[in-house]
């Protein structure tokens, strides 16, 4: 699951994770984070997620990071937006009023890039990564985020032996291991999703739940 894997997925348009609709958990649970209009929200591993538009429509500034230039270009083209592009260290930064998308590797971001954010929307980002990378991802988040930052995290819980990720199963115990040492962890909701996502049943799953967490950085 290295960078080449994701570049290839985007090149071949194998992007079953992409959703046209705004995420239901985002819409339902975002108010629990109490993010004030005008504050900045970080969307890591953002793909061409339309949730960015939803967040902007709520009055937030958004910062995103995405490896694939195919995804970043598609985000702007498909939503009729045009951005100013500039180069900043390891990133091409695409910018317009209220939005800054870093095209490059999440692991190259520093506190100066995203330390000002009030909240994080993590959907299909942590769960896109294999175990060793998840530990590195959470460790990097810990370096990037200031105390008080809230994270709305959507994770999956399913028998990992029944299907190869991504998306990977990241059950409550692992969320605790990754975030419990530096965040307050609160499980907001659990939803059975196999009936709504029959392709996962076809991939061999007997059970799959989506779990929504509010994490608050200590
Ligand atoms: C499963 S997709 C989810 C995209 C988005 N969060 C959504 O909800 O549609 C995971 C995304 O992470 C991106 N990605 C993987 N590794 C990355 C890295 N190291 N830095 C930045 N983006 C990365 C991939 O290109 C892919 O678009």
TrEMBL record:
InterPro entries linked to this entry: SAM-dependent_MTases_sf, Thiopur_S-MeTfrase_Se/Te_detox, Thiopurine_S-MeTrfase, TPMT
Catalytic activity: S-adenosyl-L-methionine + a thiopurine = S-adenosyl-L-homocysteine + a thiopurine S-methylether
Annotated positions binding S-adenosyl-L-methionine: 10, 45, 66, 123
GO biological process, one term: methylation
UniProt entry keywords in alphabetical sequence: Cytoplasm, Methyltransferase, S-adenosyl-L-methionine, Transferase
MF-aspect GO terms: thiopurine S-methyltransferase activity
Keyword Cytoplasm: yes
EC number: 2.1.1.67
Subcellular location: Cytoplasm
Family: Belongs to the class I-like SAM-binding methyltransferase superfamily. TPMT family.
PANTHER family per record: THIOPURINE S-METHYLTRANSFERASE
Family matches, as HAMAP family: Thiopur_methtran
NCBIfam families, per database record: PRK13255.1 (NF009732), TMPT_Se_Te (TIGR03840)
Descriptive protein name: Thiopurine S-methyltransferase
Annotated organism of origin: Methylomonas subterranea
